[in-house]
């Protein structure tokens, strides 16, 4: 981010690409879940850089690579943490499309995220997993609002409110 903040975008891109290449090399030579997750994260970081630069095709490609990598990882090592990383990658791709105004594509990815985040909130009901589920519900509501499907938006906002109430009841403040 240092080079990017200084307006040295070519230098920033070179560092991000080095980060991806090194992460990929490490994940292949030492294919532990941690190394493979680091590689997936590097793809997301590079996608963020491209998105900020308005290079949407390249950003989309990196986000989709991240989704594929996280999916493969969560299937080969289905721990809650790695499945959450997969859910997060689905969320970020949906968010990318929503920010571009591509609501139909955002809806597709948010629905996939919702399915997984709901499953995680039920099988591993930690506050983090339950907040992620609530965020998934809210994201769907926002997309339906963007599409001017207000009845659906209200339905999903209502489900989000219920999830928030459940979360606050299960995690009372001291």
Q: What does this molecule look like?
A:
37% of the residues are buried. The chain has 8 helices and no strands. The termini are far apart. It has helices spanning 2-5, 9-29, 33-52, 56-76, 80-99, 103-123, 127-146, 150-170. The chain is globular, with a radius of gyration of 18 Å. By secondary structure, it is mainly alpha-helical.
Describe the protein's topology.
Layout: H1 2-5, H2 9-29, H3 33-52, H4 56-76, H5 80-99, H6 103-123, H7 127-146, H8 150-170
Shape label: globular
**How many beta-strand elements?**
0
SS-based structural class?
A: mainly alpha
Total helices: the number is 8
Q: Taking Cα atoms only, what radius of gyration do you get, to the nearest Å? A: 18 Å
Distance between the termini: 38 Å
Mean pLDDT equals: 87
What fraction of the residues are assigned to beta strands by DSSP? under 5%
> Percent helix among the residues?
over 70%
Order of helices and strands: HHHHHHHH
Low-confidence stretches: none
- Largest sheet features: none
Concise summary:
By secondary structure, this protein is mainly α.
Features:
8 helices, single chain, 174 residues, mainly alpha
């Amino acid at each position: 981010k240092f080079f990017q903040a200084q307006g040295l975008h070519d230098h920033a891109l070179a560092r991000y690409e080095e980060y991806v290449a090194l992460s990929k090399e490490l994940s292949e030579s030492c294919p532990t879940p941690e190394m493979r997750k680091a590689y997936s994260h590097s793809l997301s970081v590079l996608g963020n850089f491209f998105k900020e630069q308005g290079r949407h095709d390249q950003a989309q490609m990196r986000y989709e690579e991240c989704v594929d990598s996280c999916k493969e990882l969560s299937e080969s090592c289905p721990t809650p943490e790695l499945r959450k990383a997969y859910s997060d990658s689905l969320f970020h791709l949906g968010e990318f499309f929503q920010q571009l105004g591509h609501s139909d594509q955002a809806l597709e990815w948010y629905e996939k995220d919702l399915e997984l985040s709901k499953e995680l909130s039920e099988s591993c009901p930690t506050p983090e997993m339950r907040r992620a589920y609530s965020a998934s519900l809210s994201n769907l509501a926002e997309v339906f609002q963007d599409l001017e499907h207000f009845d659906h938006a209200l339905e999903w906002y209502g489900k989000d409110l219920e999830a928030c109430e459940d979360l606050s009841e299960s995690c009372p403040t001291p």
